[in-house]
Amino acid sequence: MLDEIHCPLCMGVEVTPYSSDRRRFYLCCATCWLVFVPPKWHLSRSAEKAEYELHQNKTDDPAYRKFLSRLMGPLVARLAAGAHGLDFGCGPGPALAHMLREDGFHVSLYDSFFMCDERTLHGSYDFICATEVVEHLHHPAQELEHLWSLLRPGGWMGVMTKLVRNRAAFSRWHYKNDPTHVCFFSANAWRWWAQDHGASLEIIGTDVILLQRVR
What we know:
By secondary structure, the protein is of the alpha/beta class. It has one domain (2-213): Rossmann fold. It contains six helices and ten strands; from the N terminus they run βββααβαββαβαβαββ. Strand 6 (125-131), helix 4 and strand 7 form a beta-alpha-beta unit.
């Protein structure tokens, strides 16, 4: 089975078993260190959307705003006033975009399930946000590459996603139990991606990743 599976981030074929549970099997790429779920365990698009519709993320929820501020704070500190960005995977209630607009930034929205305006994926941006998104990507190589291509030189991509620590912690990790989570990045995976794209990388805390396009 492993001979037929490519890593969805680097397309490498050197993948090995990493963990398993009663529902799914997880592999790790020896090249980029991504941990991922093979496609046979991915949900259908309708089942995936049904899971997202269970989420209750409201723009006026103080706890949710505090959570998003972990990315917004360090990102805004690196942006010029009035910068234009894209909230990718914004969901049905784009709280982060609302917060950024309150601070005077211009924000376009895209979500393949809830705000599928393809025109926003052909723009040019000073920053792109992807909060709790990359772990859901079925084709992270293509999707991250496309987002990167939308950034202007010097632009920033801000990502929030929990990071893989080690195999033992992964086996007990609640984060992997969400059936829509299929890609799990470690700090090493982000270092690989940044080096591959000539990007400047900053990892803040346990779940905030900032990448600057320097070329």
